[in-house]
Design a protein that fits this description.
CATH class of the largest domain: Alpha Beta
Helix content: 25-40%
Radius of gyration: 24 Å
Number of strands: 14
Shape: elongated
Structural class: alpha/beta
Distance between the termini: 32 Å
CATH topology of the largest domain: Beta-lactamase
CATH architecture of the largest domain: 3-Layer(aba) Sandwich
Largest sheet: 7 strands, mixed
Length: 408
């Protein structure tokens, strides 16, 4: 039975209602200082959503527009990663298969081969080479038909809804259930055709004769599996996705989630899975809208309350805690926080588009926070300075003092 953790039911309550009277003065002082960190002539407090809570109890230490829906930028990746780890488990692997339609006669496969993907964002030429090697090792030396790329696990949309046209190919390679080497060679050829060509070339390099060309096609239900490749674990994929804010990985993972109920993978179906997981965990969903996986879409909406609830849900679940925590950048050490906030014991997830700048995470595993700033456009450099001021004040507060220190 999947672990469900009810979190942050009172995240939108006022500060005065959450902090005990004995610590009210100290909390008020912290609130004043944190509000001051967010002030800037280049930023709108009205379009800023921020909250800080005790990681263990959920006690609200600071809140400003915490339930206001705003564009989250790449902080969108956190609920996607959390939902995937929760639903699938940390050891889950995506598969890419070679299937045969036809029959084997001696060393000859009489028919077509299909390279069928399930949305593995890590698939590279070396994986295709291993698939080709497995086919040759099985004794097949000739294929009379075609080598076909099968991307039918996903829809054929190459970009996300609400993306700028320039994002495709710059912020993310084209999306497909079958992409090798992040679609190097596109747009000259489609991702599945590039993949089929790679398999055909790899087979030829290993002495397997192929009569037909590379092409496209969907493997029939009765096709025979001849070889299979498995991705790195989902824990590894999530770490790359969040630490380095990889848009392509996030979009592929979202669409893969959309396949879990037997349907073709779409961003919409994947988003529905994420939303369902969030609701089941008791995360406040008022105003939340998940449209893509990466946060590139201008149509996404998150609240600071929802975001800290997602982080606390990940920390509270022993099945995924270690993997989820490891997916954050360690400030001053790695990922997108490598050059920010050194020595403060901070793990976080950054996000920046022309409309939003965000930072969320935890300080010494004691305080969970989120700062989401919007603008038209957002002044991203002042926003990052404000975020760093905010986190520095939190890290130096009594609430975050601990001997814990994150490691890479």
């Amino acid at each position: 039975m999947r672990l469900r953790v009810a979190l942050l039911a009172s995240c939108s309550a006022s500060i005065a209602a959450v902090v005990a009277s004995t610590s009210l003065a100290a909390s008020g002082d912290l609130s004043t200082r944190l509000t001051k960190t967010l002030r800037s002539p280049n930023l709108s407090l009205e379009r800023t959503s921020a909250v800080a809570v005790d990681a263990r109890t959920g006690t609200v230490l600071f809140a400003h527009n915490e339930t206001r829906p705003v564009i989250p930028a790449s902080n969108e990746k956190l609920p996607v990663a959390w939902a995937a780890l929760t639903r699938l488990g940390t050891g889950y692997r995506l598969t890419t298969e070679v299937l045969g339609r036809g029959s084997r006669v001696g060393a000859t496969w009489d028919g077509d081969l299909f390279l069928r993907g399930s949305g593995d964002p890590t698939l590279v030429t070396a994986d295709i080479a291993r698939l080709a090697g497995a086919i040759r090792a099985s004794g097949i030396r000739r294929i009379t038909g075609w080598i076909r790329g099968d991307e039918s696990a996903f829809d054929s949309e190459r970009a996300g809804v609400g993306w700028k046209a320039s994002f495709l190919g710059i912020e993310s390679p084209p999306l497909s259930a079958l992409v090798v080497d992040r679609a190097r060679g596109w747009p000259g050829h489609s991702p599945p055709l590039l993949a089929a060509t790679a398999l055909r070339d790899a087979l030829g390099a290993r002495g397997v004769a192929i009569d037909g060309p590379a092409g496209l096609g969907k493997a029939p239900a009765d096709a025979q599996r001849l070889a299979i490749d498995r991705s790195p674990t989902l824990a590894t994929i999530a770490r790359t996705m969040n630490r380095y804010s990889d848009n392509f990985t996030a979009e592929m993972l979202l669409k893969h989630l959309g396949t879990l109920e037997g349907e073709v993978g779409t961003s919409e179906r994947g988003s529905a899975i994420v939303v369902a997981e969030m609701k089941a965990a008791g995360i406040p969903m008022q105003g939340v809208r998940i449209v893509d996986g990466s946060g590139l879409s201008s149509l996404n909406r998150l609240t600071a309350s929802a975001l800290v609830a997602v982080i606390r849900a990940g920390l509270a679940n022993p099945r995924i805690r270690e993997a989820f925590l490891a997916s954050f950048s360690v400030a001053g050490r790695n990922g997108t926080l490598r050059m920010r906030l050194p020595g403060l014991g901070v793990r976080g997830k950054t996000g920046t588009t022309s409309l939003a700048c965000s930072l969320s995470g935890l300080v010494n595993e004691a305080v969970v926070f989120a700062v989401l700033q919007n603008g038209s456009p957002v002044a991203f450099w002042p926003a990052r300075i404000a975020q760093d001021r905010f986190v520095t004040v939190l890290a130096r507060s009594a609430y975050a003092r601990t001997t814990a220190s994150p490691s890479g």
